[in-house]
Amino acid sequence: MDEFAFIDSIKQRSYKQSSLLKGIGDDAAVFRQTSEDIVTAVDTFVEGVHFSRDTMQPFHIGYRALAANISDLAAMGATPAFFLTSIVKPESWHVQEVEEVFIGMKELANSYGMDLIGGDTVSGKELTISITVIGYVPGGRARYRSVAQKDDIVFVTGTLGDSRAGLHLLTENNLYEHTEFFIQRHRTPTPRVEFAKSLINISRIALNDISDGIANEAAEIAEASNVGMLLYDESIPTSSFFTQFSMKQQHEWKYFGGEDFELMGTVSRQDWPSVKQAAEKTNTNLSEIGIVTEKNKNSNVFIMKDNIKQGLNKCGYTHFR
Amino acid sequence: MDEFAFIDSIKQRSYKQSSLLKGIGDDAAVFRQTSEDIVTAVDTFVEGVHFSRDTMQPFHIGYRALAANISDLAAMGATPAFFLTSIVKPESWHVQEVEEVFIGMKELANSYGMDLIGGDTVSGKELTISITVIGYVPGGRARYRSVAQKDDIVFVTGTLGDSRAGLHLLTENNLYEHTEFFIQRHRTPTPRVEFAKSLINISRIALNDISDGIANEAAEIAEASNVGMLLYDESIPTSSFFTQFSMKQQHEWKYFGGEDFELMGTVSRQDWPSVKQAAEKTNTNLSEIGIVTEKNKNSNVFIMKDNIKQGLNKCGYTHFR
Predict the structure, then answer these.
(1) Per the CB < 8 Å rule, is B2 touching A130?
(2) Binding residues for Mg(2+) 2, per the UniProt record (chains A, B) (predicted)?
């Protein structure tokens, strides 16, 4: 199969987005959006760095890569519309396996009515997937991390640490229970699009998606908003079977595990009931986990654990170290 | 330098596009465009496949990668507005060299008032650059390759084969003249944005940019428009000093060389004077090189050379072979 046949094989037969004027098949795609703001982000995933074939099927690799990108749109309050995908294909990967990656992406894309409108497929030494997503948000309603204010309630959706636990279960042979739940959370996470969209009537709300661990996301919101944050350790939500892991693992995974693709945010006490309503309406677990404080001197984020207040460093994974 | 410091180093201090609401620094960028259509494309470049450090400085690699993407926007008649860049950085590349790649991109971006609004920098085995560009085109004026009609004039801007000749000069030690011209055409090509924008008043015009060689682009227009094409070999424009290369090289490079990032198109005889005016206004070389015919049986594109009509196969470089 050459590149043209491959592109033809992944090309959609029809498009779902009414704003799309031209999909794949010209020098570029064209769309029209006159009523809403446009949101866009890009993320890149490299085999051996971001994923391994030992723990993920090609289907999961595609699914999760797109989920990570959609999660960025959710963190802006946006509705996913389009995606463009670049794939670098090494000889060790069969074209059929790369197709499986796309099938994984499409499975998730279809559930949001997203269209694949562009891409590039080239040869190289290691499988690399780069995805650009485009979404729409009602004018002026994009959710920035820079709007947190002192006395805001800090909240988070879902449970944390599950994805990291799933990775652990895929690489360790110890006997654990409910492994499927954690593995599914790792391989096919669900971005919180519907919940974020349901916050539409709230004028000010800070949102971040949890890609690098809540410690990192909390620090990002605090820094961008020039505030501090105090999180209550016992309020950080974890799943029922999370306690089977060691205390050290639980602590590390819920704060630094990342890739849960839940949403973390801050909102005024006055608007907190609306956030709770949005969670109920969209069947989303929601937890109040802390409070926004004045900017602190040494650490932007503190946790209260066993009645001791301690600084929480961001330990999200960073490249170029 | 860690990833955050690197992102900070490439982040623009201010943005030029008035339609931008949020640049780098949140989960995604946000912009608003209520009057024009939005055009987007992605292209990926891998070291050793698309470029080599033997023939390009990091600056040129960035410059040319973005030029290739802007050329896609030009082929749609669009004005460049934004770009997002993903870079996979191997250990063999210093962070400073990756910064040079960005400086090359920014040099070209600045000349179009483009803003860098997103990106991702990750570790990997080989330098890989993936760029997504976003541009604007007046409503309904995006230029599709599918609108060519029988009896249209086929035209091309600039001269062809120069970039391939430049690559040859960078890898061969033979004595040639005017090497700087060809090398510059290879390393820092100029997309034909202004020319394409000046065609605004023409209602129907097919456009492709020449990334894979004119043989391939002609075939793409012919296939998409369900027509045939006859090109006159002696009309294919080449630069003054192109004749110093062998006849075989000249033929191969002008038809299959690619990466000249000139524009090829077809337009009705009636609108041809407007195209010529646009070329004059933007100081662009323009050549009439053929005519659109009815769809042919065996080959979509023919050339007339030495009074003999022969089929022209597309021999653009394709991956996955």
Answers:
(1) no
(2) 43, 72
User: Region B242-263: what's the mean pLDDT?
Assistant: 94
Q: How confident is the model at residue A1 (pLDDT cuts 50, 70, 90)?
A: low
Reported as a pLDDT band with limits 50, 70 and 90, residue A317 is: very low
CB contact under 8 A, B46 and A321: no
- Residues β-bridged to residue B155: B265, B288
The distance of B307 to chain A (nearest Cα, Å) reads 33
Domains, in order of start, for chain A:
3-10+20-138 (3.30.1330.10), 145-311 (3.90.650.10)
Q: How many CB atoms lie within 10 A of CB A2?
A: 12
Q: How many residues does chain B have?
A: 321
Q: What pLDDT is attached to residue A288?
A: 98
Smallest CA–CA separation between B179 and chain A, in Å?
Answer: 30
Confidence bin at A71 (pLDDT 50/70/90): very high
**CB–CB contact A28 B50 (8 Å):** no
DSSP assignments along A124-188, one per residue: -SS-EEEEEEEEEEETT----GGG--TTPEEEEES-SSHHHHHHHHHH--S--SSHHHHHHHHHS
**Does residue A10 register a pLDDT over 90?**
no
- Record: contact A28-B76, CB cut-off 8 A: yes
Is A124 within 8 Å of B46 when comparing Cβ atoms?
A: yes
DSSP B101-169: HHHHHHHHHHHTT-EEEEEEEEE-SS-EEEEEEEEEEETT----GGG--TTPEEEEES-SSHHHHHHHH
Nearest CA in chain B to A221: B26
Give how far Cα B285 sits from Cα of A30, A109, A155, B193, Å.
28, 44, 60, 13
Disruptive mutation site among B10, B11, B17, B26 for chain A (greatest number of A CBs within 10 Å): B26
To the nearest 10°, report the CA torsion of B98, B104, B107, B110: -60
Which tens digit of pLDDT belongs to each residue from B172-213? 877 888 899 999 999 999 999 999 999 999 999 999 999 989
Distance CA A13, CA A46 (A): 29
